[in-house]
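Hey team,

Filing this mostly as a record. A colleague (T.K.) asked me to run one chain through the structure pipeline before their review meeting, and I want the input and output archived in the tracker in case anyone asks later how it was produced. No errors, nothing strange. Just documentation.

Input sequence:
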Amino acid sequence: MTKTLDQALQSLDKLTNLYDFLSSGFPKNSKALAIETPDGRCYTYQDLQRASGRMANWLVSLGAKPGDRLAVQVEKSPEAVMLYLAALRAGMIFLPLNTAYRESEIGYFLEDAKPTVVVCSPENLAWVAPLAKQAGCRHVETLGECINGSVIEKANAHQESFKTVVRGADQIAAILYTSGTTGRSKGAMLTHRNLASNALVLHHYWQWAKGDVLLHALPIFHVHGLFVALHGALFNGSCMLWLAKFDADQVIRLLPRATVMMGVPTFYVRLLADARFNKALVRRMRLFVSGSAPLLAETHIEFTQRTGHAILERYGMSETVMLTSNPYKGERKAGTVGHALPGVSVRLVNDDQQVIQGQKGSESEIGGVQVKGPNIFLGYWNMPEKTKEEFTNDGWFKTGDMGRWDADGYLALVGRSKDLIITGGYNVYPKEIEILLDDIPGVEESAVIGIPHPDFGEAVTAVVVAKAGATLTESDLMAQVKGKIANYKVPKRIHVVTALPRNVMGKVQKNVLRDQYKG
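Output structure:
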């Protein structure tokens, strides 16, 4: 770590608010472009400051206090960014929720987090409002993707000047819910320091520069789109070419104007499938980043051959933001996630909790990935025992991932100890779907696994055992699952079998199922 970066990280002890940190990178010319949408809407950095000020004043007028939660489930829009910045400025804790979540999922989050204000899409108000009322939320408002909704109408009645609330570096800025293997989601508490330190490190490590333009096609309800991509651009004072979602036609149209793009492997697979995607199209591009799911080596190699650019793969989690990265300058190795970022420590431990040392020239044994650093979350909301369980006695966070050091000291992830499935960049925990399947009449038991998929990375696949005398069909089972969980969690295939493979201890052998159905 350079002395300058080390000093900058130390200075975060005096951090007053993540918004103050991000806005310190805003261009001195307040008319500089911050966000441009495909339909021609343009927002300057002055627009972001003014609109977030009005929204912050509105939130305070509702009685929201520092530390109160603001739960948001809305479609991606520039106004959603303004609302996020307003929450930070008002000292609230921002709680972004996946737009695919349905009633049972949203109900749990609201009951657990007890937000003071809930903001949803106008079309979802009819079912969100009763859930919010049941959870004791005092205010339910709407925000649409076309500059509509009660948030904009009510915020516009307030002044644009707002003095950002002072929050300590180690006070909570956001809560991100991540599914649990037991089916109960956990709220990862991320502090102002956690998020600022990661933005600062990535700014240096990925060499953000004046004039960079970010093509932003990621959702803004999880770490990659909200904290890595958005924070990176804001802290650099960059313009963002803003897509509501990934669309190959729009991405290809905008790439000649961009210098940085962050995506999930699915994005790059779909670009490579388009004959228009070539080296001339990306002549201005400086950096392609991939994360949220493993990038297949064949995709990495084909991308380099087609464009001359090596995709930079990195590794992070909801609880930690970014942990490791392939180098900006140097070899970006397919199938690895690089080295620990500056200020972050990574170690592997074996089953006996002994640290595994990597040796140059040979691969290490596989071990559990544990991490330390200023980016590591505070703990799980309302789960002190779970928090304690996930940290070692000497303060390392147990990620649940398994990895090994390669011959050059790069980290290669080989699996997940908790059977996490990552499909299209979204996390899916099998237990949640298994509980749902097991409740269906006629189902004896089920096992949910991830199968390699060329587009999504992994496809959710279920294997179901029927009770004696019961007749189950894939179509009937699928119909009973759809609508109860987010679409990305719905299995792509459901296989009905007579028994699940088990070891001598009676544990279902999911590795056997993966091998059986991977074709």
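Quick notes for T.K.: The chain is about 30% helix and 25% strand. The longest strand covers residues 443-453.
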